Here is the input.
Amino acid sequence: MTAAGDQRRLVPAPPPLQDPEAAAAPAVRLLFDRATVQARVAELGAELRADYAGVEPILVSVLRGGVMFLADLVRAAAMPCLVDFMAISRFDASEATGVVRIVKDLDLDLSGAHVLVVEDVVDTGLTLTYLLRVLATRRPASLRVCALLDKRARRIVDVPLSYVGFEVPDVFVVGYGLDLDERERGRGEILAVDDLAAVRRDPTLLDLAGPPHGGADLRGTGPAVPAVPSQRAEPS
Ligand code: IMP
Ligand code: MG
Here is the structure.
């Protein structure tokens, strides 16, 4: 070993080159924790119960993002109501028009009914505007919207929202029904993803409020389903 070699070992290695701003900016932020989401849903439920007293509205959910919200909202409202589901797919991949194809239509007849569309997030407003136009042709007695999240800064068409859970900034939001590549819908909290590429590389960045699904990290378990212990009592 040369003296120069020994000396080089004593000099600490420089830190890897990185953009100081990128290092400071977190990839994910917690927007609303579980308790905040549940408290707001309870308030909205109480509002619906008061506003729809004496009538039995039809709550319409658009699959799949709005399902968690709808499920909690009907329980919070604890009022007589019907629920129905639609599934839509965009005609226009550029998302420029909002024209959608109905993949699964409602089963219930809306004519003469008080209809409340329960949406996850209103972004440009294009999808919802198109949907409301379609539903209006079915002659409901009233047609309103309850949106969990209002991303107002992104609005292209003005669409009246009768009930709003929270306003959110122009950022990709995930959790409580909202997906990232079809995953993460089961989280009770709502997260803002500022760096999608970083989160796709490392989904554990989303675990700001603890891992999803009550503690067990089920990501990447693939087709190998762990054995579920039998709940049945052994015959005696
Ligand atoms: P809009 O037609 O631009 O208002 O888009 C509405 C639909 O896009 C929503 O119902 C969501 O399904 C989806 N979407 C918009 N923003 C987000 C987001 O930040 N996270 C997840 N889905 C979103
Ligand atoms: Mg939606």
